Amino acid sequence: MTHAHSRDASTGGGGIGPAYFDEQAATWDDDPAKVERAAAVAAALAAAVPLGPDTRVLEYGAGTGLVTQALRDQLGPVTLADTSEGMRAVMRSKIEAGILPTDARVWSIDLATEPPPDEQFDLIVTVMTLHHIPDLAVVLERFAMLLTPGGYLCVVDLDHEDGSFHGEGFGGHHGFHRSEIAEQLRAAGFASVELADCGELVRDGVPYSLFLATARRPG
Length: 219
Fold this sequence. Notes:
Order of helices and strands: EEHHEHEHEEHEHEE
Strand content: 25-35%
Number of helices: 6
Radius of gyration: 16 Å
Largest sheet: 7 strands, mixed
Low-confidence stretches: 1-15
């Protein structure tokens, strides 16, 4: 589940799944554009929500952990979730090398099909993942269950596009209208929903705009 396929996520099927990311994982970070984009996303997140040494973070669809890697000095305990074993293996090697926090946890979980564990986080981050999940309602509700009251959800994903980003046969979403994702977040129980520009992703010479949605679990 991961970046550019930026972190085009493997959760929830839709034509591009864990096998694709398993194949890409070992060389994922070799693309400077992915690393730069992750740093830009991290900067946007840090400006949008409060972070600190006690902030318990779940990055869902974490890929190789590039966003958390860019934020590591601003966070507390970190949990990284991805459905691709290849991506999880890269994250584990980064943890062992100290590139990611040495106490970070790596999870294999697909909230589209599995109930959330009995855990609480102050912040959930998911980047370029939700457009891969056909039925968002369940996943958004499970995000809310995993957040402590007052906790934040940050979503970075594609603005609505014409289907060219993934091409024919993709079973997920062709990005999102901002009003649509805001309505879905509120329907899942979130409040203080805000949307902002979050740069763009260039694929095959075509720019695709990204948004950052922030929301809070009431508490």
